[in-house]
Write a structure and sequence with these properties.
By secondary structure, the chain is α/β, with parallel strands linked by helices. It has a single domain (about 5-255), classed as P-loop containing nucleotide triphosphate hydrolases (Rossmann fold, 3-Layer(aba) Sandwich). Helix content is about 40%, strand content about 25%. The protein is built from ten helices and ten strands. It has helices spanning about 45-50, 75-80, 95-105, 110-125, 140-150, 170-185, 195-205, 220-225, 235-240, 250-255; strands at about 5-15, 15-25, 30-35, 60-65, 65-70, 80-85, 155-160, 190-195, 205-210, 215-220. α4 crosses α5 (about 140-150). The protein is globular, with a radius of gyration of 19 Å. It binds adenosine-5'-diphosphate and magnesium ion (MG). Adenosine-5'-diphosphate (ADP) binds near residues 14, 37, 40, 41 and 44. Magnesium ion (MG) binds near residues 43 and 44. This is ABC transporter. One of its GO terms (molecular function) is ATP hydrolysis activity. Keywords: ATP-binding, Nucleotide-binding, Transport.
Amino acid sequence: MNPLIELKNMTYQAQQKTILDIPSFEIYNGEFLGIMGPNGAGKSTLLKVLSFLEKPSSGEILYRGQTVLNGQAPMELRRRFSVALQQSLLLEGTVFQNIAIGLTLRKTPKPMIKEKVAHWLELFDISHLAKKNALYLSGGEAQRVNLARAMIVEPEILFLDEPFSALDFPTKIRLMEDFKRIMEETRTTAVFVSHDLMEIHYLTNRLSIIVNGQVKQSGPTPLVLEHPNASTQSFLNEWKKFLPALTGSSFKEEKVLKG
Ligand SMILES: Nc1ncnc2c1ncn2[C@@H]1O[C@H](COP(=O)(O)OP(=O)(O)O)[C@@H](O)[C@H]1O
Ligand SMILES: [Mg+2]
């Protein structure tokens, strides 16, 4: 199966520092790919490169097997993707207007906008907020609006950068449950950046761990969590202390071996 997006020999430099050095990376159709790693590892930068928001310093990006000229992804291509960030960046106006914005930009006919917004308000369980000022929502409500706004354009790939990180625990788990169901029903391809093992374990089916700007391990999420390699073990071990049930037997063996 051809990847939707592929990186080849990609590096990203800023201020004479190599932030990313990634010989190969793929996003496949239909997957929910997690990108996990410590603070400052380069996760957000990688997400921006993959979604054509940042231009790599060297290397190649392919979309469905075709090279995209560096920094010249056409608007038509960029519009196939949605990006949702930790900060919901909602605009002045109602919740309805915020969710409609992608369709308004695409000059969708008004009756269809109304119908689609109603549909996405309902899926995210925020129909009662439609007329509210988007700038006066709780964190959880704002993130629901943010995700509905990203999904309404039916993106080919949804890119997410720590969308749940600022939410309190009960709010987070309620939203993650709704979000997971929506993603399964719509079968949207997603790339999800997080530093949080619980979120990664719950949502993703494939995982890449990135440390110091390099991809240290990739594979099916349960397999990576169960069998970390020499480069990912110390990062994942931090989590093991608090979420032993999410990590596998190889962790325990390691602990016994080390005494
Ligand atoms: N434009 C930039 N100029 C200088 N340094 C940058 C720039 N963008 C990112 N960095 C640095 O690159 C590293 C990776 O950043 P980032 O991708 O935000 O990491 P993460 O999302 O994993 O926390 C950090 O050390 C950050 O300070
Ligand atoms: Mg980040």
